[in-house]
Amino acid sequence: MIEIRNVSKSYNKGQLKAVDDLSLQVRPGEIFGFLGPNGAGKTTTIKMIVGLLEPDRGSIVVNGYDIRNDPIRVRKSIGFVPDNPSVYERLTGIEYLNFLGDIYDVPQAVRTKRAKELLELFELTGAVGNLIQSYSHGMRQKLVLIGALLHAPDVFVLDEPMVGLDPRSTHNLKEIMSRHCQEGKTVFFSTHILDVAERLCDRIGIIRRGKLIACGTMDELKTMATNKETLENVFLELTEQ
Amino acid sequence: MISRPLFVKELKEAKWKTITGLLITGITGASLPFLVDYLGFLIEQMAVPEWARSVLGEQLGNYPLYLWSNWYGKNLLQFSLAFAVIMAGPLIAGERSRNTLEFLASKPLSRVQIILTKAAAGAVSLGVIILASTVITLVASYAAGRPVPVVWFMSGFFAQYAGALVFFNLALLLSTRSDDGLKAAVIAGGIALLMFAAEWVAPLRGRTIIWMMAASRSFITGEVSFGHIFFMLLLASGFLWAALSAFRQSDV
């Protein structure tokens, strides 16, 4: 579960307000889509959830742990996929996964089984012994996804996870997200692909200039707009106001 | 306080730097005992001013003096300073420029753990280069038929390593404030060069870290200069503490 209460974050000594008094709750067993135009505050919010940035005001609680007081426990319960799949290029794929397995204390047998399944699912088995510097952008994205799932996190946080993925891997990722939420875990992700959000998410939040302007199920969001046909219409109307 | 997985990862990533450093310093150290006769021959053949001939002749005529001054006072000194800043400069700044610092900071590791583990892994790699190349130099000296007392020669290692840690941690501090590992290394290297230059200024001569690293007292007495080593380790700890504070306060 993720609870964000009255969170604000500014840059440039308060001159640029990236997130402004944001409050929302993502429940266990829920896929939450976080939408917004470029620079709306999505990545800043995600970085605060995983403890990369400290909020100026407010609190964030993940799985009952406050990020300010218990950051290590919060990070241990999160699987995070950043918007840029930057990984250690001088390691091989398997060295990278073992590094993460060690960091999260995943037992060797569990790690091997899980890594094998995920590597097969994302068709990366043949490349796992190669140096990461030889991987394409998409392969790196897949490796980061596998690494984020290796410790079976209770909360899965993804920032633009579909960028660079081929159609099959995008499909597999969506399957994983659905399976994750069926197991009672939480998925929070940002995306610009509105079709995916519409079909996949239980609830959607729309952020604009740091403020949450809409939050609810697809049906609830449709009541807020005059053109209710698709999420794209709703999104465009709400973010234009 | 130290994260074992991160420590192992750091050692793996620094593997080629360590091997390269060891090769360069090891070959240099191994060649020193074999070059002493050739250098003497060169000085005889070349048109060297009389005063220089006298100074060089005195050094070459005293093998322990030649070995100590060329190893701890010159070659190893330069290499250990260079490798200290090259290894520490990119530790945080390099992660920042490669966008991997976010990845690392999102894992269940505290900032203190990240800095201390990186510092420890770097210090181990640096220590391996300095210690192994010193042992190679000692072995080469025996192989060249010019044995020197082992304990006496190894007594210089500790001051050399402590001094290298000062510049290593200085570069680490600069690395926490930068997103360019090369820049951090160059600034720390520049400060080391200033220290070298300070040795030419009469009031400062014999009072710099560079002089302490050469361990002249150990050369004379064969004993470890605990006072100097303590001072250098204190300074190194100060830089490490400052790096820690800077990293804790910074956004990644």
Notes on the protein architecture:
The complex is a heterodimer of chains A (241) and B (252). In chain A, 37% of the residues lie in helices and 25% in strands. With 241 residues, chain A is of the alpha/beta class. In chain A, the strands form 2 sheets. A 6-stranded mixed β-sheet of chain A has the order 6-7-8-3-9-10, sandwiched between helices. Chain A has a 4-stranded antiparallel β-sheet with strand order 2-1-4-5. In chain A, a hairpin with a 2-residue loop joins strand 9 and strand 10 (211-216). In chain A, helix 3 runs parallel beside helix 5 (137-149). The longest helix of chain A is centred in the C-terminal third of the chain and has 16 residues, at 167-182. Chain A is globular and about 50 Å long. In chain A, 42% of the residues are buried. Helices cover 82% and strands 0% of the residues of chain B. Chain B has 12 helices and no strands. In chain B, helix 7 packs antiparallel against helix 8. The interface between A and B is medium-sized, with 27 and 21 residues.
SSE topology:
The complex is a heterodimer of chains A (241) and B (252).
Chain A: E1 2-11, E2 16-26, E3 31-35, H1 42-49, E4 57-62, E5 65-66, H2 71-76, E6 78-81, H3 93-103, H4 108-121, H5 137-149, E7 155-159, H6 167-182, E8 186-190, H7 194-200, E9 203-208, E10 211-216, H8 218-222, H9 231-240
Parallel strand pairs in A: 3-8, 3-9, 6-7, 7-8
Antiparallel strand pairs in A: 1-2, 1-4, 4-5, 9-10
Helix pairs in contact in A: 3-5
Chain B: H1 4-13, H2 15-45, H3 50-61, H4 63-88, H5 90-97, H6 101-105, H7 111-143, H8 150-176, H9 181-198, H10 209-214, H11 216-221, H12 226-249
